[in-house]
Specification:
317 residues, alpha/beta, Rossmann fold, eight-stranded mixed beta sheet, 14 helices, 44% helix, globular
């Protein structure tokens, strides 16, 4: 009996030591917003108040543009995902991009509500705040879902639509990044509030790229810092849980009701939202144009901005 108790005690101590070592190895508490702003919100970044939030925004290009291009990022991303597109498009067009509530430097909202309706209302309020009545809207992943839902909700305001590996249908993924799986597991959310194991972010990003070699240390640093903005990790867990609770079945009616010029861009190597969903969007939106990039993954606008923005410029012409 004493031997068993001794073995049990040694096992408990060993597990405690391993747990402590793991926490020390992966300890990554929230970072001060001022520190993040200094690195990631240099000009032309600005912050404007919308629905009680200080929204991180970049508004570039000629103000005379009658229909600015509004770009909406995906889950865990930020306005920086559109940097390559913005650099090209702002030469001739007004380009507006921002961090959605719960992500980037905008951070969580007071209600902890990241439902589709909240995001659609937020985009409308932001455009009102900027005095923009008519616009082109594009989005990637979650942002694509927001973009086409905004187009459906405000048909008189949205001139054209650009969907980039967009969500919208009941989803069957071939592979989900490890970071999303952890954030979507209620039992692990509390643990992840102050830890971020080294390599987790890089592994998750490589999972959504067609060519993992394109994931640079600076890109990993950007996504890591955005995750460590105060409240963002908790917001991600809430957002994923709310997305699961929302039913996407039946939304095909809204997609089929869209009647505006639409460009669909997709990465042929996307395993999170596979290319079969690109075909569904193309079939359901009358007159939509589909451009497939066979070598790219879930964030083609970030992985190869030069090739993807060329298709956008042709569409806008």
């Amino acid at each position: 009996m004493k031997t068993l108790l001794r073995i049990f005690a040694v096992t408990v101590l060993a597990l405690a030591a391993l747990t402590g070592a793991f926490i020390a190895w992966s300890w990554a508490p929230d970072l001060p917003l001022a520190q993040l702003k200094a690195r990631w919100a240099t000009p032309p970044s600005q912050f404007i108040e919308v629905e009680g939030l200080q929204v991180h925004l970049r508004d570039e290009g000629p103000r005379s543009d009658p229909a600015p291009i509004v770009l909406v990022h995906g889950t865990s991303a930020s306005l920086h995902t559109w940097e390559g597109w913005a650099a090209e498009l702002r030469k001739t067009r007004r380009v507006i991009r921002f961090d959605l509530p719960g992500f980037g430097l905008t951070g969580p909202n007071a209600t902890n509500d990241y439902s589709r309706d909240v995001y659609v209302r937020f985009v409308g309020a932001l455009m009102d705040r900027l005095g923009v009545q008519r616009f082109v809207i594009g989005g990637n992943s979650l942002g694509g879902d927001v973009a086409w839902t905004v187009a459906h909700a405000y048909p008189q305001r949205v001139q054209r639509l650009i969907l980039v590996d967009a969500a919208g249908y009941p989803l069957e993924s071939l592979s989900v990044p490890l970071g999303f799986r952890i954030a979507g597991t209620p039992a692990l959310r509390g643990i992840m509030a102050n830890i971020l194991p080294p390599g987790l972010m890089a592994q998750s990003m490589r999972n959504v790229y067609g060519d993992p070699a394109r994931v640079t240390p600076e890109l990993v640093a950007l996504y890591t810092d955005m995750a460590r903005r105060e409240g963002n990790r908790q917001a991600l867990g809430a957002a994923l849980q709310q997305r699961l609770a929302q039913r996407d079945s039946g939304r095909e009616r809204d997609i089929k009701a869209l009647s505006l010029p639409t460009l669909i861009l997709w990465g042929g190597q996307d395993r999170l939202i596979p290319p079969v969903y690109a075909q569904r969007f193309a079939a359901d939106i009358s007159g939509a144009k589909l451009v497939m990039f066979d070598a790219l993954g879930h964030v083609p606008q970030e992985e190869d901005p030069t090739a993807t923005v060329a298709a956008v410029r042709a569409f806008l012409r």
